[in-house]
From TrEMBL:
Substrate binds at G334, N472. It comes from the Eukaryota. It catalyses: L-glutamine + H2O = L-glutamate + NH4(+); 5-[(5-phospho-1-deoxy-D-ribulos-1-ylimino)methylamino]-1-(5-phospho-beta-D-ribosyl)imidazole-4-carboxamide + L-glutamine = D-erythro-1-(imidazol-4-yl)glycerol 3-phosphate + 5-amino-1-(5-phospho-beta-D-ribosyl)imidazole-4-carboxamide + L-glutamate + H(+). The active site is at C84 (for gatase activity), H196 (for gatase activity), E198 (for gatase activity), D246, D406. This is Imidazole glycerol phosphate synthase hisHF. GO terms for molecular function: glutaminase activity; imidazoleglycerol-phosphate synthase activity; lyase activity. It comes from Rhizophlyctis rosea. Its EC number is 3.5.1.2. The lineage of its organism: Eukaryota, Fungi, Fungi incertae sedis, Chytridiomycota, Chytridiomycota incertae sedis.
């Protein structure tokens, strides 16, 4: 198909721009990467997907001479679209990087969300309430409000608080907890979104398409005066439903999606014990995207075996998945220092970088996080800057680092029986009537238990800079008996970062129960989706009926 046009993309190399390129190409357009300030000056349409910290972004722009070119480009009235930090850079400065000036196109400051009453980062699907009347003449872009369930994907800890004096700029606002912030700006040739259109399913693709195709901007006019803003604004952040694909090579050497019972992925059959094969990773991920999954997580479950970086099978899976799936993708398994066959060590940061360039938005760290957290306590809670968590969070942002926890329940008679551990009372007594338990961390996919508990792990990882917890439970995995609510509540209360409940989902009610009883941000399931026992959409329908905000499936 001939290209409908070309958009220039300003990438300073910190994160996943592959998804944005894939989204633009899916819409029939071509992407030309900016390689010099001159490329900016010559561009006819410019996309700026900022990634990472504000200061890092501005510093990269300045060191490459892109800042001046950008300002000149914007002044020349040609179409500009900024995304996430690419929007924040338009403002004067940011609390994230004190003393670093922004481009100062819009006179306001970016501020950190208040984490006293809510999890930070603001991560997930939220509404963007338009406060500008859509003008009859072409605007630089429009958001498509297909109905009340239209949501866009956000992931950020900093935002511009909404105030009425910004109304000349503000296109939409979004509310998170007690704060209403600017979720998009639109004026003359400038359109910018705090959310990620390339990760916002079909609603996001439509927003992107409108920027690509609307070029009849009336340059001399700004958008008509906005209607009076309405309030009070309502937090419409949805609970996320995540489909998880455990991937490994089966006995025939094919890469398959598998699923264990309490982490045992082999069939219990008379003719031996084959690895369960529940489908192909790329195809299943596409099916879940179309069914309305809010995120897709891939876990490479045999990653403790060394493999050369270039042969990591999940790189290709991510590349292919990100061509057709436009929601966030997480990859876990093997995010650690790797030893190449010639003995060279590739750092966890470089391994993660390879995954981000292949289409991942977040990496999830299992075993390595346990070792790092043990070290953190052993050193008297010192931050060395050397752990994979710290390094990846510094370069790609905290939101890009998920900690995958593989705990096992250990029953005890009383808290005094395990003084070194975080012991909680349980309503489900142990085999000898024990009324207390603690949760032991494991590594290598549950193959090895450590003398370290989940409370220690998650608090350490939060301090090291992780952005989210993926909380599995070995006792519940594959049982269809519901999430371990005691574990999930305990972890939810221990940290401020978002928590994903995982392991044990068997019916739609398990999702509403875990959200109601523990207030987690997301719930993940695997087996019920793979075996087609519970359609994803029925989970969303049930949550909606139970009074939860959910993202609908738009086409
Ligand atoms: O240690 O950083 O290399 O990461 C290894 C990763 O692989 C970890 O995230 C670990 O959880 C995962 N993993 C390793 N072995 C297994 C296994 O099953 N044998 N899978 C495994 C973990 C649990 C969830 C599952 C939920 C929901 N599987 O991924 O999807 O429990 O299942 P359900 O809804 O069917 O109950 P590293």
């Amino acid at each position: 198909m001939p290209s409908l046009g070309t958009v220039s993309l300003l990438d300073y190399g910190a994160g996943n721009v592959r998804s944005l390129i894939n989204a633009v190409e899916k819409l029939g357009w071509s992407v030309k990467k900016v390689e010099s300030p001159d490329d900016i000056l010559k561009a006819e349409k410019l996309l700026f997907p900022g990634v990472g910290a504000f200061g890092y972004g501005m510093q990269r722009l300045r060191s490459q001479g892109y800042d001046k070119a950008l300002l000149e480009y914007i002044k020349s009235d040609r179409p500009f679209m900024g995304i996430c930090v690419g929007m924040q850079c338009l403002f004067s400065d940011s609390e994230e990087s004190p003393g670093v000036p922004g481009l100062a196109v819009i006179p306001a400051s970016v501020r950190k969300f208040d984490s006293k009453t809510k999890s930070v980062p603001h991560m997930g699907w939220n509404a963007a309430t338009s406060i500008q009347a859509d003008p009859p003449e072409a605007a630089i872009a429009t958001l498509n409000h297909d109905g009340p369930s239209t949501r866009y994907y956000f992931v950020h800890s900093y935002a511009v608080p909404y105030t009425k004096d910004l109304d000349d700029w503000v296109y939409s606002t979004t509310t998170y907890g007690n704060e209403t912030f600017v979720s998009s700006v639109r004026r003359k040739n400038i359109f910018a979104t705090q959310f990620h259109p390339e990760k916002s399913g079909y609603a996001g693709l439509k927003a992107l398409l409108s920027f690509l195709t609307h070029d009849a901007v009336s340059h001399s006019q700004s958008i008509p005066a906005p209607p009076p803003t309405v309030g009070p604004f309502r937090d419409m952040l949805t609970r996320r439903v995540i489909a998880c694909l455990d991937v490994r090579t089966n006995d025939e050497g094919d890469l398959v999606v598998t699923k264990g019972d309490q982490y045992d992925v082999r069939e219990r059959s008379e003719d031996g014990s084959k690895v369960r094969n529940l489908g192909k990773p790329v195809e299943l991920a596409k099916r879940y995207f179309e069914d309305g999954a809010d995120e897709i997580t891939f876990l490479n479950i045999t990653s403790f075996r060394d493999a050369p970086l270039k042969d990591l099978p999940m790189l290709e899976v991510l590349k292919r998945t990100s061509e057709t799936v436009f929601v966030p993708l997480t990859i876990g398994g093997g995010i650690r220092d790797l030893k190449e066959p010639d003995g060279t060590v590739v750092s966890a940061l470089d391994v993660a970088g390879e995954y981000f360039r292949s289409g991942a938005d977040k990496v999830s760290i299992g075993s390595d996080a346990v070792y790092a957290a043990e070290q953190y306590f052993a050193s008297g809670k010192k931050l060395t800057g050397e752990t994979a968590i710290e390094q990846i969070a510094t370069v790609y942002g905290n939101q890009a680092v998920v900690i995958s926890v593989d705990p096992r329940r250990v029953y005890v008679d009383s808290p005094e029986s395990a003084p070194a551990h975080h012991v909680i009372p349980t309503a489900f007594p142990g085999p000898n009537g024990e009324k207390f338990c603690w949760y032991q961390c494991t590594v290598k996919g549950g193959r090895e238990g450590r003398d370290f508990d989940v409370y220690q792990l998650v608090t350490a990882c939060e301090a090291l800079g992780a952005g989210e917890i993926l909380l599995n439970c070995m006792d519940k995995d594959g049982t269809n008996s519901g999430y371990d609510l005691e574990l999930v509540s305990d972890v939810r209360a221990a940290v401020r970062i978002p928590v994903i409940a995982s392991s044990g989902a068997g019916k739609v009610e398990h999702f509403s129960t875990v959200f109601k009883e523990t207030n987690v941000e997301a719930a993940l399931a695997a087996g019920i989706f793979h075996r087609k026992e519970v359609p994803l959409q029925s989970v969303k329908d049930h949550l909606l009926k139970s009074g939860f905000e959910v993202r609908g499936v738009e086409q």
